[in-house]
Amino acid sequence: MARDAAPTLVGSYPIDTGLAEIESDPYGANRYILKVNGVPSSHVDLDDPGYLDFEYMRWMEPIFLTGYPPEDYDGRARKLRVLHLGGGGCSMARWVASRYENARQVVVELDAKLAELVRTNFQVPRAPLVRLRVGDAGQVLPTLSEDSRDIIIRDVFAGSTTPRQLTTVGYARQAQRVLDAGGVYILNCGDTADLAGARAEAATLLSVFKHVALIADPPMLKGRRYGNIVFLAGDEPLALGPAFERSLRTAPLPAQLVSDSAVARFAGSAAPIED
C-alpha cells in the first residue's frame, strides 16, 4: 500500500529554472499534476504507479509491452535498461518500475531542485532501480557507453518546445550509438497545427535509423490543433503488429499509427535538422 502524500504536498515550489506547482487532480484521490513555470509537466498517481493520465504516455505503453514483454525480463538474468531524457514527475519511470521487475533506469533532469522535489514527494524508487541524474540531456547522452540501453525516451521541453540541440541528426546518432541491438528511441514531439517541427523530426530520424514510425490522434495528423506526436525509431524492425495497433485504437484518446513509407510521405519535403 502506498503511503499517503504529505499534507503540504500541494503548493508552489521555487526551483532552479523558475517555479514548480503541485496541484490536486479533482478526478482522483492521491493524484497530482505537476506544473513547471505554468505548463503541465506530469501527472502522478501515488496509489497506482501503473496509471498514466497523459495520452501520449498511454501511447508509449504498447511500445514497451509489445516490444519488450515483461515476462521476458525476470529482473535477474535480464533487466530492462531505460534512459529518460527529461524527468518531470518521473511518471514513465514509475510506470516502468511497476511493470518490469528490477529494471535499471536513469532519469536525466536539468533542474536539481525539481529533481529533489520529485524524489521527495512522488515515491520514485531509489537507485539502482531509478537513478536521478542532474544534468543537461544534450551533454549527458554523448557521455554514455555504446550499446548500454534498451529504450531511450526523449521528453524534454523548454516551455512548449524541445530544445533544438536535442532534435538534430547528430543527437539522433548519439541515441543510435547508445542503444543496444533491438533498442528503440522514443520521442515526444510537441508541435503546432502546421506540423513543421514534426515533419522535420521525421526527416531527421529517417536519415539516421532504418525503421521509423509515429503515433498521434487523427486531428493532430490533419493539422487541426497543437498536440503531441510520439516517434519511435530503431535499426531493427519495430514490434508494430495487430495487437499494437489495436491498443492504440482502443485508447481513451484513439491514436493512429504511421509507419514504413508513410513516415516518409508525412515528412514530405522537410529537411533533416542539422547540427
Automatic annotation (TrEMBL):
<keyword id="KW-0808">Transferase</keyword>
<dbReference type="InterPro" id="IPR029063">
    <property type="entry name" value="SAM-dependent_MTases_sf"/>
</dbReference>
<dbReference type="GO" id="GO:0032259">
    <property type="term" value="P:methylation"/>
</dbReference>
<keyword id="KW-0489">Methyltransferase</keyword>
<keyword id="KW-0620">Polyamine biosynthesis</keyword>
<dbReference type="GO" id="GO:0008168">
    <property type="term" value="F:methyltransferase activity"/>
</dbReference>
<dbReference type="GO" id="GO:0006596">
    <property type="term" value="P:polyamine biosynthetic process"/>
</dbReference>
<protein>
    <submittedName>
        <fullName>Methyltransferase domain-containing protein</fullName>
    </submittedName>
</protein>
<dbReference type="Pfam" id="PF01564">
    <property type="entry name" value="Spermine_synth"/>
</dbReference>
